[in-house]
Amino acid sequence: MKKDILKHQLVPEHVVLNDSEAKRVLKELDVHPEQLPKIKTTDPVVKAIGAKRRDIVKIIRRSATAEEFITYRLVQD
Question: Where does this polypeptide localize (predicted)?
Fold first, then answer.
């Protein structure tokens, strides 16, 4: 029986950005995709959400103190 890792309480929400969202985020942050922190194509969450190489993933971490912290990762091999 497989567990859905996306439902685990310690795994933050991951969302693959579409092209227009990715362009907006890169412009807002004033960075090139290669300047973003990386996440591997072999990462279990990347596989679970169907992200592909060169996709940008938005990670939304929730906490009692910071409420919501958003970060972005570039998927790479």
Answer: Cytoplasm
- Going from the N-terminus, what domains does the chain have, and what CATH number goes with each? 5-76 (3.90.940.20)
Contact 58, 23 (CB under 8 A): no
CB 57 within 8 A of CB 75: yes
Tell me if residue 67 falls in helix, strand or coil. Answer: strand
Question: What are the pLDDT digits (tens) for 56-66?
Answer: 999 999 888 87
**Contact by Cβ (8 Å): 5, 44:** yes
Q: How many angstroms separate the CA atoms of 10 and 21, rounded?
A: 26
Residues 6+ apart with CB under 8 A from 4: 48
Q: What is the pLDDT of residue 9?
A: 83
